[in-house]
Amino acid sequence: MDEASKSSATAKAVMILEALASAGRPITAAEIGLIIGQNRQTVHRVLAQLEELSLVQRDIYIERFQLGTRFGALAVSGLSTMARHSQAHRILEQLVDEVRETSNIGAFESYEVIYLDRVECDWPLRMHLKTGSRVPAYCTAIGKMLLSDLPNEQLRNYLNHVPLARLTSHTIATPKRLLVELARIREQGFSVNNQEDHVGLLAIAVPLYEPGGRVAAGLALHGPEARLPLRRALDTVPRLRKAADELSRVLFGGSEQIAEKRSRSRQRA
User: pLDDT, tens digit, for every residue of 134-192?
Assistant: First the structure.
């Protein structure tokens, strides 16, 4: 962005939103000013406008700012539209045609996973969930994948706000055990849900990356454990990762950083 473009009010608002999105934690107006190269008065003026629109929210006790609820809703809605009405949906259809199990793309929103797009397999025995459905994060494959990439402060906030209810005998229902599981997911580069939210249902998920290398969403495959045992699910990881690479490029824009992070995940697994 050239200097002339940076001077517009719209550009300043976008730069502030990008700074908040990349920070990974609430930050002060002074920090925002340093990141985007604008004076404090300008930053405060634009923040006030964004806060009024619920695109930014402020913690009045520590005077720090973070993205607002309206921004999150817009981001999820936009991603869902892109996923359902673009090349991304065709990638999902091709994956399901090959592996013959239901697959979906999900993102983190308001402490839950929301399905952005979903393609059902043709088996009569399957779980029916629609695009826009919400599921818990701590006991689902995509959810645990997304939690594993959260900055420590955001992860602590999640654990402080979300009760880890035991939905089945396989549910990870304590913060200590969940943290161990999230560390394992970061190491291996994929996540497994082995009957943690529904008895008899198994799922496996891999990440979709933003250009900066952060996990933006997840791609999951799931089916009845009788048809999709753990060994078969693990065998699908290379095909899932191929689809995830394609989806990352389509939805978030390809970059060398994505390829490098995918390569590290493959090496660890």
Answer: 899 999 999 999 999 998 888 998 999 999 999 999 999 999 999 999 999 999 999 99
Measure the CA–CA gap between 107 and 162, rounded to whole angstroms: 17
Q: 132: alpha, beta or left, given left = phi > 0 and alpha = psi -120 to 50?
A: left
CATH architecture of structural domain 71-268: 2-Layer Sandwich (3.30)
By CB neighbour count within 10 A (0-12 exposed, 13-18 middle, 19+ buried), where does 73 fall? Answer: middle
Phi and psi angles of residue 13, each rounded to the nearest 5 degrees, phi first = -65, -45
- Parse the chain into domains and list their residue ranges: 3-67, 71-268
For 8, residues 6+ apart whose C-beta sits below 8 A from its C-beta are: none
The C-alpha angle 116, 212, 10, rounded to 5 degrees, equals: 80
Q: How many CB atoms lie within 10 A of CB 200?
A: 12
Contact, 169 vs 115, CB < 8 A?
no
Separation CA 114–CA 193 (nearest Å): 16
pTM value?
0.73
Which CATH architecture describes the domain 3-67? Orthogonal Bundle (1.10)
DSSP 110-175: TTEEEEEEEE--S-SS-----TT-EEESTTSHHHHHHHHTS-HHHHHHHHHHS-----STT---SH
User: What percent of the chain is predicted at pLDDT more than 90?
Assistant: 44
Written as six digits, the tokens of 240 are 């899932």
Confidence of residue 77 (pLDDT cuts 50, 70, 90): low
- Which residue intervals of the chain are DSSP H helices? 3-6, 9-23, 29-36, 40-52, 69-84, 87-99, 141-148, 152-161, 175-188, 230-235, 237-252, 256-268
